[in-house]
Every structure is written in structure tokens, then in C-alpha cells.
Amino acid sequence: MKKYLYLSIAISVIYIVYVISTNLIIDPQATHFLSNKKNLNYHMNVSVWLIVLYIHVISACLGMISGAINFSTKILQKNRKLHRINGYLYLLSVSVACLTSGYMAPFATGGRINSIGFNMMNIIWLVVTITAYVQIKRKRINQHRNWMVRSYVYCYTNMFIQVITFALYNGFGIHYDISYTIAVYVTILLNFIIAEVIIRKVFRVPTQIKSIKKEITSNLTN
Ligand code: HEM
């Protein structure tokens, strides 16, 4: 269990360094990414889009790291307050990442088909995250953890899209727009499959937290 936590923190940190350095330092005008946007359905205000992209990248990265930290059972047992505050930080990050994604979706590379894909992900990510929150409000620890897994995999969306697009475009020479579209829809499927595999394989055993159990029992009896 611990090794998976360290692995997800390591992947998150490496990816965050990569995303921040490429998007905010190396290519802050997103020249490379924007060069692939052709035949857009709407007029795009590039300076507004760029600001929204920066907010999107920062909030998504915050979600990636705060989400990973909250899977630590040690923190949950020893510092419940930290888990709670970090949980609200995750909720806020996901909300901002979804809002900004909603703004950028109509201008998605590849056109309307990808706008639909991103909007689908937006809705699913929000619904799944709110469900995780509702579960813990009802004191259902394991359901909360499982829905958090389903929510957290969405933090890897951009990574999956980039890797798949790169492989199809550079490896197989498939047209960029088509590679990107395949990547968006394969990622929707991957997010679903990976979450269910993690829930069934990594979190087979219910989380046992004595202090929480005591609290729940006393809440229920009061
Ligand atoms: C930690 C997670 C995420 C990070 C780090 C991230 C980062 C980025 C970055 C760097 C871009 C610019 C394009 C690129 O270089 O790929 C981008 C674009 C975008 N992202 Fe995210 N993102 C994340 C999660 C998500 C999720 C979950 C959604 C959907 C619910 C989403 C929706 C979008 C949209 C709609 C665009 C614009 C795509 C386009 O113009 O073609 N992102 N994101």
C-alpha cells in the first residue's frame, strides 16, 4: 500500500515539474500547443485563454499533489485535521480545474468531438468528486476512499493524453488531430478502468482507523 502511495507521489512530482516548466517557463505563450489548433468553431481570445490555461495548470497540479497526500493512512490516523484541510484544498483545486477546463473545452484541439470529450470528463470528474465528499459526510469511509480513487485518476488525464498523442503521432505517424482525439477518448476509458483496478487490487482490504470508528460510533449513538 505504502509503495503505491510513494509511487503516485513520485509520478505526481515528476509530472508537475515537467508541466510547470514546459507551460509556464519554456513555452509560456503555448506557441507549440496553439500551433496545432486549426479549424476552430469559435473565435478564441488568446490572452484570456492563456490566463485560464495558467490557472488550470496550477490548480490541476495542486489537485494532483494534495490528492496523492490524502491517500496516506498514516496522515489520516495521526493528523485528521491535515487530511481534512488537504481534502478541502483538493475539492477547491478540482473545482477550479473543471471551471477552467469548461472555458477551454470549446476551443479544444481537434474541434467539436474533443470539446464533447472534455466536457464529458468535466461532468464525470465533478460528479465523482462530489460523491466522494457526500460519502464522507455520511461517514462511509471505504465508499469515500473508493470514490476518491475514481476522482483522483482524473488528475492523470493530461499525462495520459500527452503520452498517447505522442506515441500515435510520433511513433505511428497518425495525423495530430486524430492522435489527439483517440488520446482523449482512450483516456476517458483508462480513467475508468484504472480506478476500478486500483479499488479491487490495491484497496481490497477496508481501511481500519480506530479513532474514526470510535468517532462514528459516538456520532451514531448521540
Ligand atoms: C493534474 C491534471 C491536469 C493537468 C496537469 C493539466 C494540464 C493541462 C495543460 C498543460 C494543458 C495545455 C495543453 C497541453 O499541453 O496538454 C491542458 C489543457 C486542457 N485541459 Fe488539462 N490538465 C489536467 C487535468 C485536466 C482534466 C481532468 C480535464 C478535464 C476534465 C482537463 C481539461 C483540459 C482542457 C479542456 C484543455 C484544453 C485542451 C485543448 O485546448 O485542446 N485537464 N491541461
Automatic annotation (TrEMBL):
It comes from the Bacteria. The keyword Transmembrane applies. Keywords: Membrane, Transmembrane, Transmembrane helix. The chain crosses the membrane at residues 5-26, 46-73, 85-104, 116-134, 154-172, 178-199. The keyword Transmembrane applies. This is Predicted membrane protein.
